[in-house]
Amino acid sequence: MSDSNARAAIIRLFHVYRQYHAKNALTDLTLDIYRNEFLFVTGPSGAGKTTLLKLLYRGEKVSEGQVLVDGINISRLPRNRIHLLRRKFGIVFQDYKLIPTRSVYENVALVLEAGGRNARYVRKKTSSVLRTVGMENRLSAYPPALSGGEQQRVAVARAVVGDPTIILADEPTGSLDAKSASLIMGLLKAFHTRGATVVVATHDRALIRSIPARVIYLNEGQIAAAPTI
Amino acid sequence: MLSLHLKRALQDIRQNRLLNAVTISTIALSILIVSAAFLFFLNTTDMLEAWRRGIRIMVYLESDLDKAQRHAIETRIRKLYGVQAARFIPKETALEQLRAQMQRQSAILDGLDQNPLPDAFEVQMIPTASTWEKAEELARSLEAVAGVSDVEYGQRWVERFVTLFNLFRLTSYAMGGLFFIASVFIVGNTVRLILYSRRQEVEIMRLVGATERFILAPFYFQSMIQGALGGVCGLVALFIMFMLIQSKIQAVSVTGLVNLRFLSPGLLLTVVTASTLVGWLGCHLSLKQYLKV
Predict the structure, then answer these.
(1) Phi, psi for residue B84 in degrees, rounded to 5
(2) β-pair partners for B150
(3) Which residue from B minimizes the CA distance to A160?
(4) CA distance linking residue A225 with residue B16, whole number of Å
(5) What pTM, to 2 d.p., does this model score?
(6) How far apart are CA B208 and CA A112, in angstroms?
């Protein structure tokens, strides 16, 4: 690892282990993710892709090792400061994680409201982002009434509305048709172009081929040599 | 931000109408019972205090006493310990007073051939000696005076009543405490149930960077609304009951001597504030437990 790379890294993992019931999901993982990088994390199911993403936003704690985000060791972050870490991230979950009892607008606005933004800004920014993802006509619809592609677009809107430094996307196109998948990837690419660091966990090889980016291949919780993609 | 939390709290109440209705009803019932006991104490204490302040002993004289004898009796009464004043009430005046007190029912007195009331002295005790024990002692001394046919010390039963009343007061304190705990527990339980039904939403809010305060504030608002509404409903029910009881008492009261009063605006506000705090406390204890998990 060179000094220039170390300076540019926004996320650093040092000898990270994550165990579940004495079984390692991640083993001795050391990795730098650079500012404004577009990174794919790939590997077979159960390789530790989702676990890796969860460690970054303190969805889970490391069993051993250190995770630094923006220079802060998040393993030592007290519980009452975790929200500050999470505001650096925009997360697109595999299962969308939209609140079913809140409308499209409310789901997206929630991020800004939680961040203490004033009502006017919330209205303006939420509407603007929902327009960007093409959901401006479904503002008052509720998630159960949306298609998978639409739900994922709302999830992307929610992930980016707070202008996060880092966007994490866990299998963002997993259950989508080719057209919707292409749209979602286009959106992620657009936000990357605007300066965000984007980390996408996927096992979809076609998706990886669609964007020129660094690829990390995980196998049984360790970085391994990638097979031909 | 405040309006946002309030909006969320009202939304939650609408979404969980039944659960909230049960909670509000329980708080209302608790407030009703505790406030009814309090209202009873208030009015009873008023009456006891009025009686204590104005302990009067009526000394009825034998008939056919002349003026000199009456004067001698008055002198003896005034010399007794504890007597502040003794006022002579001729039987004609007594009859007029009775007629005035009976108001519309006074017509029944018109049928009397002669005045059945005796001459009497109304004895007023000095305030420092106005205790039930002293009054009883004085009544016994008055009975011993020659020319006195009867001494009416109408409040003798009050002493026994006060003992019973104090016992009832203690029981009510304990009952009030139990209802308070029950209300706190029920509010807490409602919060727990709603939290459980919204655990996914709470988790998502945490993931998008919401603070615990932001997540939990609507629960506090909701519980305080439940408490306040419960308090108001309980007081409205109490007021309706009070009006019914008051109208019944007025209908049977010949003399109109019983003047009941409802809780003052200050007390009403205190009750609503207290029930709001019950809501807050129930929520707080429940959330404290939840955050530990």
Answers:
(1) -95, -45
(2) B60
(3) B208
(4) 54
(5) 0.70
(6) 9
Closest partner residue to B209 among A102, A111, A119, by Cβ?
Answer: A111
ipTM of model = 0.88
CB A18 within 8 A of CB A60: yes
Q: What is the pLDDT along chain B (293 residues), one digit of tens a residue?
A: 778 888 888 888 888 888 889 889 989 998 998 899 889 888 888 877 777 666 778 899 988 888 888 888 998 988 888 888 888 988 888 888 887 777 667 777 777 778 888 889 988 887 776 666 777 788 888 888 888 888 887 655 666 777 788 888 888 888 888 888 888 888 888 888 888 888 888 999 999 999 988 999 999 999 999 999 999 999 999 999 999 988 888 776 655 556 788 999 999 999 999 999 999 999 999 888 877 65
Q: Do the strands A89-92 and A222-223 form a parallel or antiparallel pair, or are they unpaired?
A: unpaired
| Burial class, B67, CB count within 10 angstroms (exposed 0-12 / middle 13-18 / buried 19+) | exposed
Distance CA B89, CA B221 (A): 65
Hey, how many other C-beta atoms are within 10 angstroms of the C-beta on A5?
A: 10
Contact B207 A162 (CB under 8 A): no
Total residues found in chain B within this entry: 293
Of A80, A84, A86, the CB nearest to B208: A86
Residues of chain B with CATH 3.30.70.3040: 56-153
- Best of B2, B5, B208 to disrupt the A interface (most A CBs within 10 Å) is B208
Please tell me the distance from the alpha carbon of residue A198 to that of residue A160, in angstroms, as a whole number.
Answer: 11
Six-digit token string for A93? 């979950």
Tokens 């606005």 belong to which residue? A109
Q: Which run of H or E residues covers position A140?
A: none
Report yes or no: B282 and B223 within 8 Å, Cβ to Cβ: yes
* d(C-alpha A164, C-alpha A88), whole Å: 5
Q: Say what the alpha-carbon torsion angle A53, A229, A197, A34 is, to the nearest 10 degrees.
A: 90
In chain B, what residues touch A116 (CB-CB under 8 Å)?
1
Which domains are present in chain A? Answer: 36-59+80-223 (3.40.50.300)
Tokens matching residue B118: 């005796």
Under a CB-based contact definition with an 8 Å cutoff, are residues A67 and A11 in contact?
A: yes
* Contact yes or no for A154/A108 (Cβ under 8 A): yes
C-alpha to C-alpha distance for B174 and B167, rounded to whole angstroms: 11
Q: Name the pairing type of β-strands A214-219 and A38-42.
A: parallel
Three-class secondary structure of residue A34 per DSSP: strand
Give residues 164 to 223 of B whose Cβ lies within 8 Å of A.
200-201, 204-212, 214
Which residues is A200 bridged to in the sheet?
A40, A169
Q: State which fold the B56-153 domain adopts.
A: Alpha-Beta Plaits (3.30.70)
